[in-house]
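Re: that chain you flagged

S.,

Sorry for the slow reply, it's been a week of failed gels. I finally had a moment to sit down with the sequence you sent. For the record, here it is as I used it:
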Amino acid sequence: MAISQSNLNLVELGEYAEIYEFDDGNTISRYTTYPTSIIFNARDYKPAHIKRGEITRNTTFEPVTCQITAPLEEKLVSYLSNYPTTPSKVRIFRGLVSNFDAQNVLIFEGNIKSVQLEGIYAVAMCASLGSILEATWPRDIHSSFCQNTLYDSKCGLSAGDYQLNFQIDSISSTGAIVSTAIGSAGSLYTHGYVRYLSNFRWITHGENNKFNLHVPFDSSVAAGVIVTAFQGCSKSAIDCKNKFNNLANFYGCPYIPSDNPVIWGA
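Prediction finished late last night. Pasting the structure tokens below so you have them in one place:
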């Protein structure tokens, strides 16, 4: 229900709060930026240190994009940091604290499109549901890099042939996974990912006995836990041929010049 005109006409407005719903298709997590819990539709929205950026709008004043920032220690990071990205929907309501059920308005609804790290915070860029229809087409472009997703049907490789199940020995101070089971093969997993239950983390750099992750797992992933790692691909024809022996399924144009001949000369 929208905020009533009678409330807007008051000389002193009541206190307002925003609530957030994050839906990954399996569970919905509910938070509020207000210092205490908010009850809305008989559901409890827990306080969380979430910061919302400006909601951009198109020429018809419809919301298009929104930026959400959350500290890494929040449970919310499980939705923001999974790799491959778990499709997550976001809904943001603003309402009157004293009567949120009756005095509220939906100010944004969309999907998380990308996530980046800024210090100890995860920053998620969200796009409204309508703007998704404005995605670039066609999906495939001329590029020297393969446009298949590793282990998908077009790639043709089976993830099970390139996985490693292992026990974690320790977690470093930066959140990296350390295990002697990784051995000297760590570099094979760069650009791959680690899976624990339904959570994934991208391996930014694999080295001897160690996987560096783009975002650390939460406290449930600790020494003694069994996880699964999958080898990564640089998307180059060289990797496709030499690492995976899969050049027949390479979906790119490896001989496209990397330098623009108009600018740099032939």
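What I noticed first: The domain at 5-134 is CATH 2.40.10 (Thrombin, subunit H).

Talk soon,
D.
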